[in-house]
Specification:
single chain, mainly alpha, 3 helices
Amino acid sequence: MLTIKQITENTDAVIRGLEKKHFKNAQETIEQVLAFNNKRKST
């Protein structure tokens, strides 16, 4: 299970790991997760 902290601190490694597991659109998905988190923090 990935946490926001892991995704934020190791974005490239997380994306590579997801792609290694054949997760489709890993880059776009992680970017969305980070955008949602930033939006959540700003409200």
